[in-house]
Amino acid sequence: MRTLGISAFYHDSAAALTDGARVLYAAEEERFSRIKHDNSFPHLAIRNCLDSLSCTAKDIEHIAYYEKPLLKFERILGNFVETYPHSQSSFIHRLPEWFGEKLAVEHTIRKSLDFTGTISFVPHHTSHASAAFFPSPFERAAVLTVDGIGEYQTTCMWSAEGTTLTPLFSQNFPHSLGLLYATFTAFLGFRINEDEYKMMGLAALGTPRYVEAIRSLMYLKKDGSFRLDLRYFSFRERDAMWSHAFEKIIGHPRRPEDSVTEFHADVAASIQRVTEDIYFSMLNHLHAVDGSENLCISGGVALNALANGKISSRTPYKNIYILGASGDSGAAIGSALFASLTRDMTIPRQEITHLQLGSRYTNDDIERELTAAGVPYIYVGREDEFCEKVAALLAQDKVIGWFQGRMEFGPRALGSRSILANPRFAHMKDKVNKIKGREEFRPFGGSVLAEKLGEFVDTHGAGSNFPFMNFCFAVHDEKRNEIASIVHADGTCRVQTITPGDGRYHTLLKSFAALSGLPFLLNTSFNIAGEPIVENPAQAIRDFKETTLDCLAIGDFLVFREPYTAPDGAASHT
């Protein structure tokens, strides 16, 4: 049964197509619209999905939407009544989008796809829980879903087995760990639902001096549940996240154009500490109630790699699965899997071990764009030779744009649309940040051969399988100088493990390790500041030309800035 899962109208809209429990395709709308975190209906992602699989809407048997819009609007109406007249302006401002598109989701789906079949509306946190557990390797697991807000729920705990999700506990709006973190994201001058990664990067540079001040803004319980003191928060009444009383406790907010100071780093470190304390309290309580040794997590808060890396040391869990696209985009997969597996519980679940689920381009597609762009390039048809050449360039401290195979799904570059560099020297961090136009304090992750992970980091017994780059682990003291450009100020590194199943990217890591002695590469997303990750060859070539990348490895082609004298066996084009 082919099921199309859709998430839209909040942030990171996406489409995913499943056949039973197998994910055939998944992509965010932003990759095609070129609007970062695009929240519009994913017309372009759906079109690319159907085109990529050579099918039409008539081949889709079922469509699943990732939440219940009417229930969400009910909550918004209730909040308006509770907070009137303070919320009147904000409520009136939001009404057009609700009556214009958010409540008309079914009409939009049927009209855009000419679809007459069944449409399911899956509760938001059920979509997250399904994306967390159904693609996992576990027959039974505890599940935590935690984000800003769904319909009413902000946190849910589940017991999962086979194809069944059993709810155990939920916490409702406005008491939200995601919204608490978002409040501090905005307070520090960053964009909500976009710049939380900057907060995590900045936290490593600060001292958590304001932990008690932040704790005074809420009422905490040992089980991780909490209530925000709503005197300090204003997101129920208006678009601003905090009140004047908040500033009396925490201090003056940072404007986006202001420089980052020690105070800002200390606030970031403090909210990270409080977030982790709540997160681990939730997980320890979930373990006490459920008892499973296995854990799955989803929702926007599950993208907090700093916290994830401490789960195995701060809780009893050692077997942990967090889908790389754990935010709202991943809920498109979750809603589709839930719809399929609840309609036919005999369908065998299938583990998601990689996220190369998007668009693909042939060498012919790529060469047409290279010729049109007029850039010098060579063709290297043998994979081992191709990877040896790229590894040699990386060993010479060249920064490479890497465009290979199917596009990744989710917020992380995982070796298909990446910028790669030698991680050995600290100055490489500054070089790559400059190429991308990013803030100097922001760290990079690293891809590592899975069998070598334990030589470099301490996973606290959590294993060596972390394919989605959503865990930060402490790097062994004696290894920090070997991978200096990807070790952050707190001594941690966000890691992605690479296995033979990763194809050409694994071959490249092996080649680089053989040449340099390092089984690691600096890996960051192939984009420049303010734009989504590149989707097609033309975008990759444009970014190559507009930045100071040293080389572009795209398909079977190596692209250079100057005419290149090809060695024997390599066809050169200038």
Radius of gyration: 23 Å
Give the class from helix and strand content and strand pairing. Answer: alpha+beta
CATH class of the largest domain: Alpha Beta
Number of domains: 3
State the strand order across the main sheet: 17-18-19-16-20-15-14-21-22-13-23
Instruction: Give the overall pLDDT as a whole number.
Output: 94
Q: For the report, how would you describe the main beta sheet?
A: 11 strands, mixed
Q: Which overall shape is indicated by the principal axes computed on the Cα atoms?
A: globular
Could you list the spans in which at least 5 consecutive residues all have pLDDT below 50?
566-570
Strand content: 15-25%
How many helix segments?
Answer: 20
N/C terminus separation:
49 Å
- CATH homologous superfamily identity of the largest domain: Carbamoyltransferase, C-terminal domain
Instruction: Assign a percent range to the helix content.
Output: 25-40%
CATH architecture classification of the largest domain: Alpha-Beta Complex
The number of E-state strands comes to 23
CATH topology of the largest domain: DHBP synthase
